[in-house]
Amino acid sequence: MSSLYPGVALITGAASGIGQATAISFAREGCRKIVLADRNEQGLDETREAIRQVSSECHVLPVKTDVSAPDSVDNLIAQAVGRFGRIDYCCNAAGVLSNNQNSTATSPEEFDRINGINYRGCWLCSRAEIRQMLEQEALGTHDGRAGSRGSVVNIASQLGVVGRSAAPAYCGSKAAVISLTRGCPRLADTPSAKVIDTPMTRPNMDVLGSAIAIAPMNRAGTAQEVADCVLFLASSKASFVQGSALVVDGGYVIN
Ligand SMILES: NC(=O)c1ccc[n+]([C@@H]2O[C@H](COP(=O)([O-])OP(=O)(O)OC[C@H]3O[C@@H](n4cnc5c(N)ncnc54)[C@H](O)[C@@H]3O)[C@@H](O)[C@H]2O)c1
């Protein structure tokens, strides 16, 4: 059976958690060209090895990248296109967690750090990805429907939809990701995740436990459950989904 993913995937934050699970999922679902971006080189090696375990035919390009630095992002896209000729399925998952401080306790430096990675970094990556996609021909689809020149999936957060007094800088950075995505609807979609069990949240489960308990499913989600939504949004099966914020939160916002 032919893959839903005949093109090139590019994932930021690919060294850990949701980005890592997404990269491995692309390989498992038949994508044969994958670009891994993260500032953590050791984690990139781990992801490359995990991909090798699920697919011996997958070509992987790890690129050490700081998503908050324009030159580093430009280098990422240049290396990806230099190696594979195009990019088709981008997932921007690189991010940092809230500092667990309210606004009065947050310094301007801390605000800039969180927003520089989560918001500006996501914008820098999606801008560079979309620029490349606009130069490409559309790729064929699994069932012959009209193809697209690419898809961009930005990982926001449930905290971009609702507030948390101990995370205003983080909430703002993720609301900005959702709004940014709506601003480039032809290519981008956003899953908004609630508490997902990853290296980012594991050390803070005592703080996050009350948030988990509010949601009807009363458990943390898995990185795989977010990756599954990313793969749907990136695929030609989501051809009529544009600029949406898909909430992946165990029912938190309906409670
Ligand atoms: N885990 C959750 O509960 C949860 C919930 C909602 C949203 N999110 C979002 O999902 C995304 C992934 O989070 P995760 O839980 O997998 O966390 P994680 O810490 O496991 O992974 C994040 C990755 O981003 C990388 N990164 C951070 N800053 C970077 C930079 N400047 N340049 C390049 N790479 C950088 C890290 O090295 C790490 O590998 C983040 O954007 C996060 O805000 C996570």
From TrEMBL:
GO MF assignments: oxidoreductase activity
Protein family: Belongs to the short-chain dehydrogenases/reductases (SDR) family.
Residues forming coiled coils: none
Organism: Friedmanniomyces simplex
PANTHER family: DEHYDROGENASES, SHORT CHAIN, SHORT-CHAIN DEHYDROGENASE_REDUCTASE FAMILY, PUTATIVE (AFU_ORTHOLOGUE AFUA_5G14340)-RELATED
Name of the protein described by the UniProt record: Uncharacterized protein
Keywords, in A-Z order: NADP, Oxidoreductase
Keyword Secreted among record annotations: no
UniProt-listed SUPFAM superfamilies: NAD(P)-binding Rossmann-fold domains
